[in-house]
Amino acid sequence: MTVSLSTRDEPVLGAFRITGGKTFYEAQAVEIIDQLALPHTIKWEQVDTVHGAFDAIKTMKSLRASQGTEVTYASHPQIRGAPAIASLAALGLAAELLAIQTGRDSPSFSHSLLSSPPQDLLERILERCAYLFTSRPTAVNLREALQRIEVAAKAEAAKEGATAESLAKKVIDVAVGVWVEDKERCERIGDNGAKWILDKLEREGKIEKGEKIAVLTVCNTGSLATSGYGTALGVIASLHTQGRLLHAYFAQTGPYQQGARLTAVELASLGAPHTMVCDTAIGALMAEKRVHLFVAGADRIASNGDTANKISTYQISLNAHHPHPFSPNPPVTVLVAAPLTTLDLTMKSGREIEIEQRPSWEACTVRGRVVDPAKLAKGEEVEPAREGEEIHVETVLVTPPGTKAWNPAFDVTPASLIEGIVTEVGVAEKGAGQDEYDLRAFVEER
Ligand code: MRU
């Protein structure tokens, strides 16, 4: 299987693509790669409605129980990663507005709304935004994108001479902007982060000029989590492109296995040297191997720098700061990579961040490709799936039935454990002797 994900030169926008040589405006839909199926199967699914976007972000699935009753259950999302969630929500809304512009009714909007006063369409748009907002709670990028749309929509509707047509057009353009701008932003984050860490390590005498560095990351923060290139994985991609990446270690990232399933695919497609590390082996890795940097993404960063990110980011950051007595490492630098849209300046600290709890059963099960373990033990290669090929994937219970798991999707790493927060406009650092950031000042100064 060659999974071609977006790098700087490829036409696919991260987790998204538009087929048939069309623009989003012409297609009135976007396709997303089904991240539940990766890495075993490459499956693209079309999203052209608000409900479709909501569903892919939250992923509510229906099971037909044996008595014929429908049971709805929450599964891991098909699209995930803070910036990608925001982009898809915006595109789902835009797709429906494009549909009514071509004279069709869409599930959310009757075509006749276009000939009604703009206030009627505005009301419906705001209601749809409120619905999308409830899909997942922790990543702030979703709220930021929806607020941006709401503000633009209200301003357009209040303009002298505004029509429902002009309102729809405005909302479509702002929504598409959420998606397109994200990729460009990510490239700047990657380059800013790579420069910052290399300069810092050289300045501190921890590496020689031009020396390569080893990096550890967690979860998936690359093309699949954004509109392209990625945040923390973008820093790694930039180091690799500059010939300065010695090795990329990535945490398996249970229970959803974003590292094992998704980051593994992305690093392979970048051609970067990489090794997976079980979440339980992070301490041992830092005790035994040279690691210069731990770089993580973020779902929400409070104004003091406290950062919510994938569960285990906190314990890895703690490890990074407390080198093992046998370790070849001085404390490992911790860098958070995120766009400005991930900063939540309304929150003073990470205490205020709502952490999504995932269902117990998700932590008690493993989902994967069915293979013959004897073949693996003999070192035989498993044939990669070809595009479109159906692979036998199963969910298996690994706990005794009835076991209950506490399963938070994210944790909060305190600002005191983070040396830098790299964004598209530069790197925020704490003042000398400070334990916290002043991100409001950082943003205002730019
Ligand atoms: O539950 P997920 O997979 O949506 O969690 C994703 C993360 O925690 C990422 O690190 C974060 O969204 C940053 S992605 C650029």
Give structural notes.
The protein is globular, with a radius of gyration of 22 Å. Helix 2 packs antiparallel against helix 3, helix 3 packs parallel to helix 5 and helix 6 crosses helix 7. Helix content is 37%, strand content 17%. Strand 6, helix 7 and strand 7 form a beta-alpha-beta unit. The strands form five sheets. The chain has a seven-stranded mixed β-sheet. The protein has a four-stranded mixed β-sheet with strand order 13-10-11-16, covered by helices on one side. It has a three-stranded antiparallel β-sheet with strand order 1-2-3. It has 13 helices and 18 strands. It is an alpha/beta fold and 446 residues long. The site of 5-S-methyl-1-O-phosphono-5-thio-D-ribulose has 17 residues, from helix 3 and strand 11. Belongs to the eIF-2B alpha/beta/delta subunits family. Pfam families: IF-2B (PF01008). InterPro entries: IF-2B-related, IF-M1Pi, IF_2B-like_C, Initiation_fac_2B_a/b/d, M1Pi_N, NagB/RpiA_transferase-like. Keywords: Amino-acid biosynthesis, Isomerase, Methionine biosynthesis. One of its GO terms (biological process) is L-methionine salvage from methylthioadenosine.
Give the SSE layout:
Blueprint: E1 16-17, H1 24-27, E2 30-33, E3 44-47, H2 50-58, E4 60-64, E5 70-74, H3 82-101, H4 118-133, H5 140-158, H6 164-203, E6 213-217, H7 232-241, E7 245-251, H8 258-270, E8 274-277, H9 282-288, E9 293-296, E10 300-302, E11 307-310, H10 313-321, E12 333-337, E13 343-344, H11 360-364, E14 365-369, H12 373-377, E15 393-397, E16 410-413, E17 420-423, E18 426-428, H13 439-445
Parallel strand pairs: 6-7, 6-9, 7-8, 9-12, 10-13, 12-17
Antiparallel strand pairs: 1-2, 2-3, 4-5, 10-11, 11-16, 14-15, 17-18
Helix pairs in contact: 2-3, 3-5, 3-6, 4-5, 4-6, 5-6, 6-7
Residues 80-83, 139, 219, 221, 225-226, 231, 258, 297-299, 309-310, 409 line the site of 5-S-methyl-1-O-phosphono-5-thio-D-ribulose.
